[in-house]
Design a protein that fits this description.
Elements lengths: L1 H4 L2 H30 L3 H15 L2 H12 L4 H7 L9 H26 L2 H9 L4 H12 L1 H16 L3 H7 L9 H10 L3 H34 L28 E8 L4 E8 L2 E6 L6 H9 L6 E6 L2 E5 L4 E2 L7 E4 L11 H5 L8 H14 L15 H14 L4 E5 L7 H15 L5 E6 L2 H7 L2 E6 L2 E7 H6 L4 H6 L4 E4 L1 E4 L2 E4 L4 E4 L10 E4 L5 E2 L8 E11 L3 E8 L11 E6 H8 L5 E4 L6 E3 L2
Parallel strand pairs: 3-9, 3-10, 7-8, 8-9
Antiparallel strand pairs: 1-2, 1-4, 4-5, 5-6, 10-11, 12-16, 13-14, 14-15, 16-22, 17-21, 18-19, 18-21, 19-20
Length: 606
């Protein structure tokens, strides 16, 4: 039997395949990581070159390798001068197997990298992680199954490589004759029994590798299904020595003046934030999240300047752009961006890798306690609720003691009950925070409850800004009034210094504020529509009910002025009243008396 007389093809194949797999593993990962960041038309060309050995016949690949490493080639002659010969040697078998197997490792790994949520990588950067740490602790672990699959495929392809090996290394028994080449030689010489033996051996090796891969995958799933909650590296209680926020020589200010061209508009934002929360209010797609990304260093503005506590983070004129890892800005993402392969405690401590172990554990435990999630320390994000994930995300940011905090619609994924509870928790957490906070939301009521200053964005432009009470009471533009919740806005024209005409409502309205020539619309908030004012009060009109909409604690009334509505006529305006007011009104005959308070009218432009 051939194995009893000459086992060299098995030894050569295993040595070649293992060496080629190791080389392919590292080369493929490096290439995949580089290509992960490449964008534009150049990416397709580079990707095509890297995957070319996958589609070319192996003999063609072997021919090109012979042209590169053959004795007549420039590289071959240069190597011969130092006593190295590649062609028709064992290293040639490794080179051929590596080149042929490389595309499988590269493409599989790149696909695995691209399946990882990029927000997780961005979150790691905002927590101070360098690119190497991001790769080692986030990207590679999450893409691990795909990377392992790529290595297995590369091993299998290298084990079965024939054409390129034959062209570059030849068929030299005991030196370059691998098992596939031994099969070819045995079959060519008529020894079908020997060929069958090598075939069976290759099949057995391949099945063993696949079986080991499936077993490892099964063990990994079982290990993560039920984490051990009995042990932890955290101390049993908060130690006597605490580690307060490291105060810098800062004034607690964030100054932002940025511009960036986007697909549909140019984003232009100017804001100043001091201690306390500044709300970015606006509809979806207005540029709110992009503004946060530019402040955090995750996206680069076209021009502008960012200064935090006197420290210049970005200055297009001066060519300064500190990366996200060096900005010390905490970000709570809309989807929380918790690392799924790390426990709650490991998530909270992710940004503390440079701190001594005792200090790191103390700070982790302090945040877990303050957010009421200490009992979740050893659970994984998939094993906790949405509200708990949100608290973990906040604790993770606060543990790194940031100089500023950015919150991107942090309550968007929560139900109303959890939202209120989490709002209270976050408000308590931020009560002792010394730095500026920028809070992104499209919810007017949420912005009003949480923020002292507001900035309203629409189509990339700041259309209103200032203290929240002033902004809600006197929005200057139609867009600002709508975004701050005004539901009754109609076209109007100035007919006097204190009077406007509203054609849609068939009336004139008196105002207490001076009416400017630029006025185009007038508005009144639905909860400020009053009923049963004394006769002769300014802006008092008869009204009829068109329809209603009921909420748990209030009624929305859709009303028409001056005359009883005909079938199909739309209401003039909307009024939100309490259930008590509704009970009083519904007991009275129509028309009711409606008043639009001159002091409450919003005089708008645009």
């Amino acid at each position: 039997m051939i194995l009893s007389t000459d086992a060299s093809p098995l030894i050569i194949s295993l040595a070649t395949t293992c060496t080629a797999t190791v080389a392919t593993f590292f080369l493929g990962m490096v290439a995949a990581r580089v290509m992960y960041d490449v964008r534009g038309g150049l990416r397709a060309w580079i990707d095509g070159i890297l995957t070319l050995p996958l589609v070319l016949p192996p003999t063609v690949v072997g021919f090109f390798l012979l042209l590169i490493f053959g004795r007549r080639s420039f590289i071959g002659r240069a190597l011969e001068h130092v006593g190295v010969t590649i062609a028709f040697s064992w290293p040639a078998t490794v080179i051929a197997a590596t080149v042929i197997a490389f595309p499988l490792m590269y493409r599989t790994t790149l696909g695995a990298f691209e399946q990882v949520n990029p927000t997780l990588l961005q979150a790691a950067r905002t927590l101070g992680a360098t690119e190497w740490v991001v790769f080692r602790r986030v990207l590679l672990p999450l893409a691990g199954p795909g990377v392992v699959a790529g290595a297995v495929l590369a091993f299998a392809r290298a084990l079965g490589e024939f054409g390129a090996t034959l062209m570059l290394a030849g068929n030299i028994p005991g030196r370059t004759q691998t098992m596939p080449i031994a099969i070819f030689s045995a079959a060519e010489g008529g020894d079908m029994h020997a060929a069958l033996v090598w075939v069976v051996l290759i099949v057995i090796l391949s099945l063993a590798i696949v079986r080991l891969l499936n077993l490892e995958k099964k063990n990994r799933v079982l290990a993560r299904a039920e984490p051990d909650l009995s042990t932890t590296d955290l101390p049993a209680q908060l130690p006597a020595t605490t580690f307060p926020h490291q105060e810098s020589e800062s004034t607690g200010t964030l100054e932002v003046d940025l511009e960036r061209s986007l697909e549909n508009f140019t984003l232009r934002v100017v804001l100043g934030a001091r201690n306390g929360a500044v709300g970015l209010l606006g509809p979806s797609g207005a540029g709110k999240s992009m503004t946060l990304r530019m402040i955090a260093g995750l996206s680069t503005p076209d021009r502008g300047r960012i200064v935090l506590n006197g420290r210049v983070l970005f200055d297009s004129a001066g060519g300064r752009n500190i990366p996200a890892a060096g900005r010390r800005i905490g970000v709570v993402f809309q989807d929380y961006a918790l690392f799924p392969h790390l426990t709650v405690a490991e998530n909270v401590g992710f940004g503390l890798s440079r701190a001594p172990k005792d200090e790191r554990n103390a700070r982790i435990w302090k945040q877990l306690e303050s957010m009421g999630i200490a009992e979740l320390a050893n659970r994984y994000p998939r094993q906790i609720s949405g509200g708990q994930r949100q608290r973990v995300a906040i604790a993770r940011c606060m543990a790194m003691e940031p100089d500023a905090l950015l919150l991107d619609e942090p309550f968007a994924a929560l139900d109303p009950h959890l939202r209120r509870r989490t709002e209270e928790q976050l408000r308590a957490t931020l009560a002792g925070f010394k730095g500026p906070v920028v809070f992104v939301t499209h919810d007017m009521e949420e912005a009003f409850r949480f923020c002292s200053e507001l900035l309203v964005l629409d189509n990339g432009q700041v259309i209103a800004s200032g203290p929240k009470h002033k902004l809600f009471e006197t929005p200057r533009t139609v867009a600002a009034a709508r975004l701050t919740g005004c539901k009754n806005i109609v076209a109007a024209r100035r007919v006097g210094s204190d009077c406007v005409e509203v054609e849609a409502w068939e009336c004139r309205l008196r105002t207490t504020a001076a009416v400017l020539e630029a006025l185009t619309h007038v508005g009144v908030r639905s909860h400020q529509v009053a009923f049963q004012k004394p006769a002769g009060t300014d802006n008092t009109f008869p009204c009829w009910l068109v329809s209603t909409s009921e909420a748990p604690h209030e009624m929305t009334l859709y009303l028409r002025l001056h005359a009883q509505p005909l079938p199909g006529q739309l209401p003039h305006l909307q009024a939100d009243v309490t259930k008590d007011v509704w009970r009083q009104l519904s007991a009275q005959p129509q028309p009711w008396s409606l008043t639009l308070d001159p002091e409450r009218l919003l005089l708008l432009e645009g």
